[in-house]
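thought: user wants a sequence for this fold. calling inverse folding tool.
action: design(structure=
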């Protein structure tokens, strides 16, 4: 499992194996708006990036997080 999936799983309190690129608030019951903010904070801390408001509002699933991290130069090794 990737560091990203592990981080998401920890924040959302689910197994890392259940996290996919299509995972998001629609598929992870514990993904509340509050946990979404916690996730953004943890992502910024872990990957040393700062998301814009537009980027934060654009996150609908894990694939969006990957895209935004990539835009900040973060290379993920899945």
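)
observation: tool returned 78 residues.
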């Amino acid at each position: 499992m990737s560091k990203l999936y592990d981080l998401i799983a920890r924040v959302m309190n689910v197994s890392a194996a259940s996290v996919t690129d299509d995972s998001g608030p629609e598929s992870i019951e514990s993904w509340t708006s509050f946990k979404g903010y916690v996730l953004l904070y943890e992502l910024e801390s872990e990957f040393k990036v700062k998301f814009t408001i537009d980027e934060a509002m654009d996150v609908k699933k894990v694939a969006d997080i990957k895209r935004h991290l990539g835009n900040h130069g973060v290379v993920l090794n899945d």
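thought: summarizing for user.
answer: Here is the designed sequence. The helical segments are 3-12, 33-47, 53-58, 62-71.
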